[in-house]
Design brief:
Number of domains: 2
CATH superfamily of the largest domain: Electron Transport, Fmn-binding Protein, Chain A
CATH architecture of the largest domain: Roll
Number of strands: 13
Helix content: 25-40%
Bound molecules: flavin mononucleotide
Distance between the termini: 55 Å
CATH topology of the largest domain: Pnp Oxidase, Chain A
Order of helices and strands: HEEEEHEHHEEEEHEEHEHHEH
Strand order of the largest sheet: 2-1-5-8-9-4-3
Mean pLDDT: 91
Structural class: alpha+beta
Largest sheet: 7 strands, antiparallel
Length: 290
């Protein structure tokens, strides 16, 4: 039997002390007590509820004594700003991550530009604040969130580890990345945080271009894949189920290209719902070599 694996003792903060876990870098913006915007860097922030109407949520793990935790508990709102991979930005994130500083002290050192969130969204429950806190202009994407208090904040009162279930009210993204998302091509350069590993430094990995691994050819497209691809391509254009079914035989690698052709043609004609007849009419004109 291979003896290559050896045990690693599980200690506190195991994600950075007993293992290698790639994490995102998110500046959480919140309203401080004086109304000033506080930016705190956080990496323990991941998708938590991924399906269901209005249910989508992130989980943020933050120290109970942080400005961010106090501000979310008081105001119930925050914005998750995903910071792109630039060493200058990571340096400033580490600066903003020094525990114990007040918002007024730390924000003097921030190099990030703040923009109001109000034009984009309203919190789902405006009891405390009528808007989400300002967002970071340099971010690739921002999740505007409301805290769901029905989820337990602490699993154990002895630990100052707070779990915030953050319902996603709105996702906003820089336009060029939104276009890449819909076309299925192109990725923003996002950093990978490996955490505070040796009690001296934070470690970040540079982004390299992602590579694709197609699903095996014999698996073909499933209805679910086609419907998903059609529905996410352009929110202004809806697809009838039978219209999606017309694309089942399109090889996976050409699926997005084909959807783009159909959506462009629909927009040209001012059509907002794609019917099977419309797909057939295009097929007749443009794809009669099939
Ligand atoms: C890149 C980075 C990621 C961090 N991730 C977390 C995290 O997920 N949870 C946490 O409690 N602290 C995390 N920290 C430490 C907090 O940023 C630190 O406690 C900071 O003081 C929080 O700011 P705030 O008090 O303004 O909220 C991180 C620090 C850095 C630099």
């Amino acid at each position: 039997m291979s003896q290559d694996f050896t045990e690693v003792r599980i200690v506190d903060n195991f994600y950075q002390t007993s293992s290698f876990i790639p994490m995102p870098v998110i500046l959480v913006s919140t309203f401080s007590e004086s109304g000033m915007i506080n930016l705190g860097p956080y990496s323990l922030c991941f998708p938590h509820i991924i399906a269901g109407d209005q249910q989508h949520a992130m989980m943020l793990i933050a120290r109970g004594s942080s400005n961010t935790a106090a501000n979310i508990i008081r105001t119930k709102v925050c914005a998750l700003n995903f910071i792109p991979d630039t060493k200058k930005y990571m340096k400033n994130c580490v600066m903003l991550g020094y525990p114990g500083e007040t918002t007024e002290e730390k924000m003097k050192k921030s190099i990030f530009t703040l923009l109001p969130a109000a034009p984009y969204s309203k919190p789902r429950n405006c009891q405390a604040y009528a808007t989400h806190p300002d967002i970071v202009k340099e971010a690739v994407q921002v999740f505007l969130c409301s805290w769901d208090e029905s989820f337990p904040l602490q699993y154990n009162k002895e630990h100052m580890e707070y779990h915030f279930l953050l319902r996603i009210d709105k996702i906003i993204m820089q336009r060029k990345w939104r276009d890449c998302l819909f076309k299925g091509q192109g990725f923003p350069a996002m950093p990978v945080d490996y955490g505070y590993r040796d009690n001296v430094r934070f470690w970040f990995a540079r982004h390299s271009p992602p590579y694709a691994i197609p699903i095996p050819r014999e698996k073909g497209n499933t209805m679910a894949t086609v419907k998903y691809a059609c529905s996410r391509f352009d929110p202004a254009v809806k697809w009838q189920e039978d219209a999606c079914a017309r694309l089942l035989k399109v090889p996976a690698i050409f699926l997005n290209g084909m959807i783009e052709v159909v959506v462009d043609a629909a927009k040209e004609k001012g059509i907002s719902v794609i019917t099977p007849r419309f797909v057939d009419s295009l097929r007749d004109k443009r794809f009669d070599e099939e």
